[in-house]
Design goal:
single chain; outer membrane lipoprotein receptor (LolB), chain A; globular; alpha+beta
């Protein structure tokens, strides 16, 4: 009997987290996002290309500063840069010495997790939210883009149970490709200068503007 009573007590204590709705989780995430002005983290990315049945793994560092600045620096398997600043997206691959520069629309910025963190919007403005079907994790949240999906079918976030910060996200493209990015050694609001997002085109690099 004592064991049964103890089990019931534990169930009652844990029930608020178990019963948390998608909108409640989204609200917790939004509150965390609103307090985040800068972020530094290491990341590991696993990409699955459906058409080629190919899986690739990459890693590097990520820095974010609101509003609208983001930089992925890939160090493995090769050196690459992805930089967002002032609505301009720059992608650089060292092995080909090629730079691609293009304007990134507000709609696209709102529909990917890390560019959302670099922006100013609200989650529920751009996404419908739900608990992933069959998920046993208490802090997983699924986002379905509203309106034009701009190539993104859905995004699944794994949130830190204490801070409700994003620790891992998987986004499924309309093509069927799947990208999962997991963050580690996350430092929030520790100070990031605007100059951290500057990029100088390397000598001899070819430039493609879109």
């Amino acid at each position: 009997m004592k064991k049964i009573i103890l089990a019931l007590i534990l169930l009652l204590i844990s029930s608020p987290a178990l019963a948390m709705t998608a909108n409640e989780l989204a609200g917790k995430l939004q509150a965390s996002y609103d307090k985040t002005h800068t972020l530094r983290a290491d990341f590991t990315q696993v990409s699955v290309v459906k058409a080629m049945n190919l899986q690739k793994t990459a890693s590097g560092t990520l820095i974010i500063k609101k509003p609208g600045m983001l930089r992925y620096t890939y160090t493995k398997p090769e050196n690459e840069e992805v930089i967002l600043k002032g609505g301009n997206l720059i992608m650089y691959v060292k092995s080909t010495n090629q730079v691609v520069e293009k304007k990134l629309s507000r709609a696209l910025m709102d529909k990917t997790p890390t560019t959302f963190l670099a922006g100013t919007g609200k989650i529920t403005d751009s996404f419908d939210v739900r608990i992933p079907a069959g998920s046993k994790a208490r802090y997983d949240l699924e986002l379905i883009p509203k309106g034009n999906k701009t190539g993104v079918e859905k995004i699944t976030l794994s949130l830190d149970p204490k801070t409700f910060d994003i620790r891992k996200f998987t986004f499924v493209e309309t093509s069927g490709n799947v990208n999962t990015i997991e963050l580690s050694h996350v430092r929030i609001n520790k100070g990031v200068k605007d100059s951290a997002f500057d990029f100088k085109i390397p000598k001899g690099a070819s430039l493609i503007s879109e």
